[in-house]
Amino acid sequence: MNSKNNLSNLNNISKELKKKILDISYKKKIHHIGSCLSCVDILTALYFGFMKINKKKINKNDRFIMSKGHAALTYYLMLMKKKFFSEKFLFKEYLKNNGKFGGHPDTNISLGIDFCSGSLGNGLSVASGMAYTYKKDKKNNRVFVLIGDGECNEGIIWEAALFSAHHKLNNLYVVLDYNKLQGFGSTKNIINLEPIKLKFQSFNWNVEVVDGHNIQNIISGLKKLKKLKKKPNLIIANTVKGKNVKFMENRFESHYHVLNENEYKISLKGLEN
Amino acid sequence: MRFVFVEELMKFAKKNKNVYLVTSDLGYRAFEKFAEKYPERFLNVGVSENNMIGVAAGMAMNGKKVFVYSILPFVLFRSLEQIRNNIIHNNLDVKIIGAGGGFSYNIQGISHNTSEDMSISRSLPNLTIYNPGSKIEAKLIFNLMFKSKKPCFAKLGKAPELNLNKKNIKINDNAFILTSGKDLTIFSTGNILEIVFNAVKKLKLSGINIKLISLPILKPINDYFILKQSSSKKIMSIEENIEIGGLGSILTNIYFKHKFNKKINFKSICLEDKIHNKIGSQSYLRKINGLDESNIIRKIKNFLNEKY
Asked: For residues B123 and B111, is the Cβ–Cβ distance under 8 A?
């Protein structure tokens, strides 16, 4: 990811997928839009700028767990863009009776979904188990997890954080989608995570803080971590819930809101600008 | 029984390089041999049952056969969601070993003792459930568990050396017919088996002949085996679990499901559906819950005297 061309390509992918999130969410009348928009740039950086993911070489792939499973649509769109399936297939199977894609992701290796999620906190623990065996077996596969900030209230996050640091799982990369909003409002008012960087550092993790909507910044953060050894890696990605849709930005209600026609049109326009 | 488990697991681990033993910091003075012989395949995740199940799921996703171990309620109750979502739902090769069950942990209290573990575990789909009541049964079920590639749960209490006349034991559909008799058929399972076995032996001396069948596998159960063995007029189940979801309910379900039209009189001896928080030794707790030998003998005699 050195050339400017590549970067503008990734920015275009992100923009394209944000538009699709609005399209699909509007057409399917679904919520969690704020969470989905919050992590598009992160997943674009991971899927198109850092992870090794190839539909035809599944065994050699890096693994990814979408621990904040409620942003499933963003995840599905990344896999679609990675050609695990077509857009038509996604639309046909998403939130349909007997469909492949539910509101939260279900394990389906051939569709690129490495592990199911939906109950918060569990993804990091499972990822630690994967990373542990890759290390034991001297394999080069790495394991990536996207976690949310509300999710960090869960005890199992910290159990897994202790475990992976103890075993020096430097093949484990966690990205925290830090939009500072959770179910009832701001993380600061509900369960304060700060100082989150110091917490993970004191748990023996390598930590980088990045702008979670600057793809170049995310990728250079990941590259910095890659050079460090002996510890699991955390990117704290400062993000904005509902990014790029002005009336949703930084509002926890964007977790629950379903777009009406007018809002849909306004939000698309906002995205263009 | 955990010693039998470790012994058998070590033999198996020699043959299968994918076998891992994972514990949440329990198994002191039981797992040292394994840890010494296979340090690379022994993992103590610390006191963190939820994470243990998550880690085991990740390992199994990468092709490992993972045995996770803890005290029964810690691993089954605390980690129920991880077991359900991560292990069972993904059909992973993870074997959950729960030590104790029933009043095995005696004076340690309600955190360690259980009255509902069979009820909870049996309600989970795609989970094979083992509940051995003796050393011989334990050996059998471990070997079945080693062959299986599906999620399994095994409940390990003490490992009594039942003084069985091995020639008389009939192994049938993985059930053990321990004694024969036409006055009464008793189905039992797990920890309580030793007590039931001794009661049955004593009753034989006074001329009461009982067929005692032990079921070390609680899921799946072969309905037709149960129906075939239910040949006497009076049938009883004895278990150290509450009635809801326990052995008694397994049997009655089978009888009704198959429209079992033989005239039978059925009685379930089990724990009451209440908070079992009395402190005491295993034998004391059994006694106050009517599950000691003399209470069992009395209940059997009363049942045989009932007119039907």
From this structure: no
**In chain B, where are the structural domains located?**
2-156, 166-305
Predicted pLDDT at A1: 47
Of B154, B156, B253, B240, give the one whose Cα is nearest residue B196. Answer: B240
Q: What is the pTM of this model?
A: 0.95
Say yes or no for a CB contact (<8 Å) between B82 and A125: yes
Angle, helix A72-81 to helix A40-49, in steps of 10 degrees: 30
Beta carbons of B59 and A160 less than 8 Å apart: no
Nearest chain A Cα distance for residue B20, angstroms:
10
CA of A58 to nearest chain B CA: how many angstroms apart?
A: 12
Token pair listed for B43: 């993992």
Is B90 in contact with A116 (Cβ distance < 8 A)?
A: yes
Q: What CATH number matches the domain at B166-305, 3.40.50.720, 3.30.1360.70, 3.40.50.920, 3.40.1390.30?
A: 3.40.50.920
Asked if A159's CB is within 8 angstroms of B86's CB, the reply is: no
- Range B2-156 has CATH code 3.60.10.10: no
Chain B residue numbers with beta carbons less than 8 Å from the beta carbon of A162 are 46, 48
The pLDDT confidence band at residue B24, using thresholds 50, 70 and 90, is: very high
- Average pLDDT for chain A: 95
What ipTM was predicted for this assembly? 0.95
Residue-wise pLDDT tens digits, B253-289: 999 999 887 778 999 999 999 999 999 999 999 999 9
Contacts of A132 in chain B (CB under 8 A): 43, 55, 58-59
d(CA B106, CA B284): 8
d(CA B79, CA B59): 17
The three state secondary structure string of A71-117 is HHHHHHHHHHHCCCCCHHHHHHHECCCCCCECCCCCCEHHHCECCCC
pLDDT tens digit sequence for B139-170:
989 999 999 999 999 999 987 888 776 666 66
For A108, name the nearest residue in chain B, comparing CA atoms only.
B90
Peptide bond into B220 cis (omega under 30): yes
Q: Residue A200: what are its φ and ψ, rounded to 5°?
A: -65, -40
For chain A, which domains are there? 4-272 (3.40.50.970)
Nearest CB among B46, B57, B81 relative to A126 is that of: B57
Give residue B263's pLDDT: 79
What's the gap in Å between the CA of B80 and the closest CA on chain A?
Answer: 12
Cα separation, B255 vs B107, whole angstroms:
37
SS3 label, residue B207: coil
For residue B36, give every residue at least 6 positions away whose Cβ sits within 8 Å of its Cβ, in sequence order, or none: none
CA distance A181 to chain B (A): 25
Q: Is the pLDDT of residue A2 over 70?
A: no
